[in-house]
């Protein structure tokens, strides 16, 4: 039985030249787990929001959506709130109370349930999600992973028929993201809840789905089981851009072209590698490992931090504690660490937003305090915050860019480099999360900074654009710019960074090249490295693993 039936659905935002959804026809079976894939701006979020009346964007709509064989638009507010749950990308946007237990009770109280029923449901759900350990905490003191788990529990306590999730792990570290996605899989398996999710972190959930739907340009271009869709996508001209975000095992299979059954998990990828790769005794692990990238010339000190201490309140705990680190011009440095480890705080200190209570920060050899009257932001440092909407003050993207630079040539060059040509006439708040990231990046690049601070710049971005972003950042560093990135995106860091560092307990725990940094890690490493190490390779990216495999010899089926 279909829970959702989508028939000839088309949608266009006001003033848009193209449809965000183009004649979509889908059936989502009751009790299934469905994954929506595709490039940023392909229509995934727009489609997801059309499945909940209260979130449907304003614009021109054709076609219809049925829920339990009845028009979705006929659902009352009460029915919609109870039957269709939605978890957003930004955890903070969904929390409405100041205590964890109040957040769990809020929806049930709104439905008018009696006190006994509310307590039973909350106790059950808090235990299922492990929330009982922080049941009485203030919501603003929770980590990002805890906030998103609370949002999930607050929706599930309503016992919905359908659970919709829009990039729910975008702001979570790898460990928290894995725990969250495992919880989603358990919900589908244990409760039979119909789940529809958009997600760029596919290694953790791709294998568990019943149906994978690939979108491009607002249209559905393929749908099927994970293994079927993956096998088609790696050879399809239309779906190849989406396939770049598929699990590492799938991309390895596509790159080696051996045929046979397509692996979709790390375990299957490791078995596939052992089966298809020749390893003559004379070829050592060292000889076929990923080549170490040539170290860039140090372009001089961009940022030097010495014995830094920072806390947000006088009586609170230190967020940064005796932290020392250095960042060079001409390098991309990715700072990794769990939610709450201090990554965003560190960028705030470098950018002059947060003031140390002890320690020293030097920017281009000068104390940060010596930059007076905003001179720090006059071609020296520019920051892209975690929430790009904070940078937008105009009604169109082109006006945002014109506000920063009056030079038409500079604007045109940045438009081409960041790929925002098709977004110029759109309102920034009508863009998808990934498109907002692109527009915000274009805006800060027009300030021509020598040091660029990026806080989770790949959030909501597809693998295709991440590749372009990596190339753009490498072009900037080749011209001497220093790029410092706070990120949870291990795959991006492995590909783009010259140096990676791990923050833990307020200080830098380790630092090194991507190969050295990720090679010895268990959780903070790429799926490609987990597959590679099973066969004795040192590769941390799928691309270099494929090169090493081809050098060692590949056996076809």
Describe the structure.
It contains 20 helices and 20 strands. The protein is α/β, with parallel strands linked by helices. It has a six-stranded mixed sheet. Strands 16-17-18-13-19-20 form a six-stranded mixed sheet, sandwiched between helices. Helix 3 (100-111) packs across helix 4, helix 3 packs parallel to helix 5 (144-156) and helix 9 (248-256) packs parallel to helix 10. It is globular, with a radius of gyration of 24 Å. The chain starts with a strand and ends in a 5-residue tail after the last helix. The model is unreliable at 280-295 (pLDDT under 50).
Domain tally: 3
Major pleated sheet:
6 strands, mixed
Mean pLDDT: 89
Query: How many runs of DSSP E, i.e. beta strands?
Result: 20
Distance between the termini: 39 Å
Low-pLDDT segments: 280-295
> Helicity, in percent?
25-40%
How are the secondary structure elements laid out?
Blueprint: E1 2-12, E2 21-29, E3 33-38, H1 44-49, E4 60-67, E5 70-71, H2 77-83, E6 84-87, H3 100-111, H4 115-128, H5 144-156, E7 162-166, H6 174-191, E8 194-198, E9 211-216, E10 219-224, H7 226-233, H8 240-243, H9 248-256, H10 266-276, H11 285-288, E11 301-310, E12 320-328, E13 332-336, H12 343-350, E14 358-363, E15 366-367, E16 381-384, H13 397-404, H14 408-418, H15 433-445, E17 451-455, H16 463-478, E18 482-486, H17 490-496, E19 499-504, E20 507-512, H18 514-519, H19 527-534, H20 542-552
Parallel strand pairs: 3-8, 3-9, 6-7, 7-8, 13-18, 13-19, 16-17, 17-18
Antiparallel strand pairs: 1-2, 1-4, 4-5, 9-10, 11-12, 11-14, 14-15, 19-20
């Amino acid at each position: 039985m279909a829970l959702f039936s989508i028939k000839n659905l088309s949608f266009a935002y006001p003033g848009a030249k193209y449809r965000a959804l183009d004649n979509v026809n889908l059936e989502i079976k009751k009790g299934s787990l469905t994954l929506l894939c595709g490039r940023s701006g392909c229509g995934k979020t727009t489609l997801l929001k059309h499945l909940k009346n209260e979130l449907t964007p304003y614009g021109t709509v054709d076609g219809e959506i049925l829920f339990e064989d009845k028009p979705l638009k006929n659902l009352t507010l009460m029915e919609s709130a109870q039957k269709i749950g939605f978890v957003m990308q930004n955890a903070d946007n969904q929390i409405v109370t100041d205590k964890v237990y109040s957040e769990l009770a809020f929806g049930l109280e709104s439905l008018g349930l009696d006190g006994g029923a509310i307590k039973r449901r909350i106790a059950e759900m808090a235990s299922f999600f492990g929330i009982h350990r922080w049941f009485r905490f203030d919501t603003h003191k929770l980590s990002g992973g805890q906030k998103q788990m609370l949002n999930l529990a607050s929706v599930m306590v309503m016992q919905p028929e359908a659970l919709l999730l829009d990039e729910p792990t975008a702001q979570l570290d790898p460990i928290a993201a894995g725990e969250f996605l495992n919880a989603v899989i358990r919900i589908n398996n244990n409760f039979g809840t119909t789940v529809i999710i958009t997600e760029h972190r596919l290694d953790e959930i791709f294998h568990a789905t019943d149906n994978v739907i690939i979108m491009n340009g607002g249209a559905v271009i393929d749908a099927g089981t994970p293994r079927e869709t993956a096998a088609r996508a790696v050879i399809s001209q239309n779906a190849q851009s989406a396939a770049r975000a598929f699990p590492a095992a799938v991309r390895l299979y596509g790159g080696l072209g051996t045929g046979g059954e397509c692996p979709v998990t790390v375990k299957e990828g490791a078995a596939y590698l052992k089966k298809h790769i020749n390893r003559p005794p004379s070829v050592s692990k060292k000889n076929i490992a990923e080549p170490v990238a040539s170290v860039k010339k140090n372009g001089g000190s961009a940022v030097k931090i010495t014995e830094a201490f920072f806390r947000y309140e006088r009586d609170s705990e230190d967020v940064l504690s005796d932290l020392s680190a250095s960042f060079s011009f001409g390098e991309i440095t990715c700072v990794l660490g769990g939610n709450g480890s201090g990554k965003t705080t560190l960028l705030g200190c470098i950018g002059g937003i947060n003031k140390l209570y002890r320690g020293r920060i030097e920017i281009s050899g000068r104390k940060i305090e010596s930059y007076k009257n905003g001179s720090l932001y006059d071609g020296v440092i520019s920051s892209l915050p975690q929430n790009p909407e904070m940078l937008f003050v105009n009604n169109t993207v082109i006006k945002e860019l014109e506000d920063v630079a009056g030079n038409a040539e500079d604007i045109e060059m940045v438009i081409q480099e960041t790929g925002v040509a098709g977004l110029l006439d759109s309102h920034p708040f009508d863009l998808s999360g990934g498109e907002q990231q692109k527009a915000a990046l274009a805006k800060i690049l027009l300030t021509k900074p020598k040091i660029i601070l990026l806080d989770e710049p790949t959030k909501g971005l597809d693998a295709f654009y991440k590749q372009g972003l990596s190339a753009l950042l490498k072009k900037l560093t080749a011209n001497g710019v220093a790029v410092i990135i706070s990120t949870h995106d291990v795959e991006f860091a492995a590909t783009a960074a010259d140096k990676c560092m791990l923050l833990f307990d307020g200080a830098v725990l380790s630092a090194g090249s991507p190969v050295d940094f990720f090679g010895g890690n268990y959780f903070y490493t790429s799926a490609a490295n987990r597959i590679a190490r099973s066969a004795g390779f040192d590769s941390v990216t799928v691309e270099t693993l494929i090169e090493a495999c081809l050098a060692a010899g590949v056996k076809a089926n």
